[in-house]
Fold this protein.
Amino acid sequence: MTTTTERPEITVEKIGQIAVVTLDRPPNNHVSVPLMRDLADLMEKIDRDDKVRAVVLASAGKAFCAGADLVAPDGIGGSGMNGINDLYTQAVRLFSVETPIVAAVQGAAVGAGLGLALVAD
């Protein structure tokens, strides 16, 4: 069963005891602070689900994640170091998830995208 979260760029598909979390933000799956916050919220929710034994973190398209969005209004480009600090705050939340995470990395994983890939166990 595939479900779209409140943020349509993130979908969750439960296959047995595995949750497949897919980032789909074309063309390069850039991340923003709100996207990372929503992803961290979702991963914490999955972490509390006793029926989920593992998470596969994947993305659609050619790039796994080509870094932080420096251009969009909700990107970090206009907020300087505050935006970067907020992005790191959300990343720390992802590193706190206890459910094992496997990253299905295809294509580029640059900057914040590499950090996202490193969330995996």
